[in-house]
C-alpha cells in the first residue's frame, strides 16, 4: 500500500464520521463480517466517493437504487473480509468515540461468529492412500 498523506486520511475520517457506517453483514457468507459503507447522491457525491476509494484502496464505488443504471445514488462499500478493519485502522486516529465503539462492538461480534462457525465445521473428506 502506498504511503498515505495524513491530511488525506484525516479527510477520509471526517467524511466517514459524517456520512459512513460500520455494519455487520452475513449475506452470502456462512458467518458475519463487518462492512464499511458510505453513500452519496449525484456526480459530486460520486467524486467524493471515488476520492475516498483512491485513498483507502479497498472496497468499490457503484450506483444503486431501483434502477441502478439510471440512478443518481452512489455507494462505496467494502466487500472482502478484513477490508472494513483496514479502513478502520487507517482512519481510527481521527474518528470520534461513537464510531470507534461501534466498530469494536461489530469486530467482536464478527470474531465470535467465526469461532462459532469454526467449531461447527465438519472434518474434511478422508483421503484414502
Description:
The protein has 129 residues and is an alpha+beta fold. Strands 1-2-4-3 form a four-stranded antiparallel sheet. The relative contact order is 0.18. It has one domain: Roll (Endonuclease I-creI), CATH 3.10.28. 48% of the residues lie in helices and 19% in strands.
Tell me briefly what this model is:
The protein has 129 residues and is of the alpha+beta class. The chain contains four helices and four strands, in the order H-E-E-H-E-E-H-H. Strand 1 (20-25) and strand 2 form a beta hairpin.
State the main characteristics.
alpha+beta, single chain, 129 residues, 4 helices, Endonuclease I-creI
Please state the structural category. alpha+beta
- Oligomeric category: single chain
Radius of gyration: 17 Å
CATH topology: Endonuclease I-creI
Beta-strand segment tally: 4
Largest sheet, if any? 4 strands, antiparallel
Name the beta content range.
15-25%
- The level 1 CATH classification is Alpha Beta
> What's the rounded overall pLDDT mean?
85
CATH level-four homologous superfamily name? Homing endonucleases
